[in-house]
Amino acid sequence: MARWPDGAQRMKMDRHYSGAILAFQFLTRLPMPRTEHFSSTDLSRSSLYFPLVGLVLGVMLAVILMLGAGLDPWAGAVLALLFWVWVTGGLHLDGLGDLVDALGAAHGDPTRFHAVLKDPHVGSFAAIALAMQLMTKLVFLMLLTREGGGWLLVPLLAWARFGPLLWSATLPVLRPPGAEGAGMGERFGWEIDKLAIIVMAILLVLPVIVAPVLLAAPLACGAWWLFLKYRLGGQTGDCLGAGVEMVESSALAVMVLLILMGV
Asked: Within 13 Å of residue 164, how many CA atoms lie on the same side as its CB?
């Protein structure tokens, strides 16, 4: 005889449900049910569902690429990129632009890094970086479409959104002198279960067995960890968002090149 879940079980189910919904609300523009009693802690816990969001977005982009391929690989790539930017709201692109501007400003004056990182204006460094990022994605999406490898976006986008969990859980938070309160990168680090990260990493490795070219994704995550560790000394919310973009574009480029080389 089936049993209804007790109060504690229902609360746990509701927490998982609201966490998944919040993850989609934070990372996408997809319509989601309204959540009640929202708090910053809930958003931090929802980061465990970021890879799930990546899987869903990857499926959507793969479908768009396959449909567009019926017209022309370029058409599929343009449609996919437009949807990619729209559905994410440019969230990670914003982090990339902020980080590049801050690094450019800090080249001559390291004390300006945090001030420029929080500046909402777009500088010349950011504009150039964003243009190059979008062009890179467009070209390699076209090549991926031409080679019939659109399905590779599914695990790739999951890996890219697994990266923030790894980086925020294992790297210190960069704080400007005298700063108080916790930023997004710090709040994620507080709430992430290390065991859950290990389990997700194991699950995300499985597609690599089917398609070895997907090894480019975890390697890109590791490369960004090294950059944050040894170039910046830690991470912020903008660093996490920029990392998602860099993993997506670099791993996409490497995968396509390997496919063209017959690997």
From this structure: 34
